Amino acid sequence: MCIDARLEAGAGGVRQVVIGLAHGLSRIGDGSEEYMFLVHEGETSYLEPYVAGPARFLALPPKPDAPSWRRLARAARSRLNEAVPAGRLLWGKVPASLFRPAVPNPSDGRIEQAGADVMHFTAQEAFLTNVPSIYHPHDLQHLHLPQLFSARERRDREILYRAFCEQARMVAVSSKWTKWDIVRHYGLPDIKVRVVPLAPPIAAYPVPTEQDLRAVRERLALPDAFLLYPAQTWPHKNHLGLVEALATLRSAHGINAHLVCPGTQNAYFPIIERRVRELDLADQVHFVGFVSPLELQVLYRL
């Protein structure tokens, strides 16, 4: 079994699932199974503590840097979001016809050469292969929340999701509702889409000590009591709704609740940050960035 672990640093949720898979699969089996975690060279550190026994890495060459024009486009988009709260909406109005449609990438042959019997794509990104595959489209939010995506993003997701769903022997989803959604929108046979709970990573992580609790509270300057919302700052995670709720609690009920938000701060973060300042909530809302598994456990306990 080859498991796709080529995940960006900000892919917190799916990384947790892959860590859970690595920890669990490294501890089972009678020696007849082998689990290969597909990674790029130099991007294994997040998974190294959990890969052992029948599990190992299958390394690809280092991921190439994005073209300079793409880096400039990302930087410009980030500055637009920061300068203009509606910047993302303006970007979303660029017609898809100005860009070439996405084309599913073919396998480079490494998983085939390694003798993989099954390829498990853990996230929406995948590639074309003749090896029987499991594909995991986590949601179809580009259809349900189109305002959060540009026309190009919506078109490209449709092209790629459909291609990889068609290729897969099994499409894995984490809930009955998502199964219904995938079957309905993509016309897949009911038997092809299976509900498979996501692998839990908690057993893989160290249990925090009292010293850990004190150290993290001090390092992050945490209040005594707080609400916790761990999520990358994608628009659909709705941090804006949370900060609006905090403002309502304060104005309508006199409750000054604190909110702690760990997670990668992406290009949408400046819009959230601006709204926090507008609502005068800077003393109550704490964005602490991406944290380690141990630190996340500490935050839950605190």
Structural features:
10 strands, three-stranded parallel sheet, seven-stranded parallel sheet, globular, alpha/beta, 302 residues
Describe the 3D structure.
With 302 residues, the chain is of the alpha/beta class. It is 38% helix and 13% strand. It has 11 helices and 10 strands. Helix 2 (68-83) runs parallel beside helix 10 (269-278) and helix 8 packs across helix 11. The longest helix has 17 residues, at 151-167. The two termini are 38 Å apart. The mean pLDDT is 90.
Short summary of the structure?
Helix content is 38%, strand content 13%. It is α/β, with parallel strands linked by helices and 302 residues long. A seven-stranded parallel beta sheet has the order 3-2-1-4-5-6-7. Strands 8-9-10 form a three-stranded parallel beta sheet, covered by helices on one side.
Q: How would you spell out the order of helices and strands?
A: EHEEHHHEEHHEHEHEHEHEH
- Number of DSSP strands? 10
- Helical coverage, percent range: 25-40%
The largest pleated sheet is described as:
7 strands, parallel
Structural class: alpha/beta
Q: Largest beta sheet: what is the strand line-up?
A: 3-2-1-4-5-6-7
Q: Point out poorly predicted stretches.
A: none
How many H/I helical runs? 11
Average pLDDT for all residues: 90
What general outline do the C-alpha atoms trace?
Answer: globular
How much of the sequence is in beta strands? 5-15%
Radius of gyration, in Å, reads 21 Å
Gap between N and C termini = 38 Å
